[in-house]
Amino acid sequence: MSDTAAPTVLYLVPTPIGNLEDITLRAIRVLGEVDTVLAEDTRTSGRLMQHLGLKKPMLSYHLHNEHQTVQRLLERLGKGETMALVSDAGTPGISDPGFLLVRECLAKGLKVECLPGATAFVPALLKSGFGAERFTFEGFLPVKKGRQTRLKELASETRTMIFYESPHRIVKTLEQLAETLGPDRQASVSRELTKLFEETVNGTLPELAANFAARAAIKGEIVLVVQGREKEERIKEDRYTNDRSAD
Q1: In 3D, which of 138, 143, 139 has the Cα closest to residue 154?
Q2: Under CATH, what is the fold of the domain 10-114?
Q3: Among its keywords, does the record have Cell membrane (predicted)?
Q4: In a designed cystine with 93, which of 24, 98, 118, 216 is the match (CB 3.0 to 4.6 A)?
Q5: 10-114 and 120-226: same fold?
Q6: CA-based diameter of the chain, in Å?
Q7: Tens digits of per-residue pLDDT, 160-189?
Q8: What does the domain layout of the chain look like in residue ranges?
Q9: What single string gives the DSSP state of each residue in 166-221?
Q10: Top-level CATH class of 120-226?
């Protein structure tokens, strides 16, 4: 049976990152038609379903149980049950569980469909004012092991870089990026996107670090966008390296 003829059994359904009006008509239809909803947090997704006037069986599917539950889900999907996978906010599979289930479904010939919809990094990228023609999505930096190695690898990145970060680590991340990329590198911090207190702050990495360090509290999920290394910056470093080699 061809892929086009096979029925879809798993749908990846983006949900609003804050503003409930950002749910699509297609997402509402799919959530209403599937047999089961797989949710990162059934309480969070349950409130969305209630808001939409939908009642469906829900199963918990998150980072800590996906390896244990994936085989049982595959058996049910293989028998023709349809499921929608949602995360707490945004598109499932982007810095959220989903990859493992999708991979295993495809390996078994089960059709997967991904709906377009809300994701946090796109509005943050466009609001930064940096080039969006070429960019790299880095997600969350390693918290401990491998963090410094990854930062050093990014020092030569010429594309705009996008990171997700938590409120309690954003100052440290900005400071470390300033040390690695230089004090003149421009960046943009967006938080509470699509919500009432949405905010985007632009400046150099040290300026942003000082801005957020001075706050009594930082709330909301954060998207950090950092300008890529410019040509002039590369020329200066290459010239410095050549001069050092001649000594």
Answers
A1: 138
A2: Cobalt-precorrin-4 Transmethylase; domain 1 (3.40.1010)
A3: no
A4: 98
A5: no
A6: 74
A7: 999 999 999 999 999 999 999 999 999 999
A8: 10-114, 120-226
A9: -TTTHHHHHHHHHHHH-TT-EEEEEESTTSTT-EEEEEEHHHHHHHHHT-S---S-
A10: alpha beta
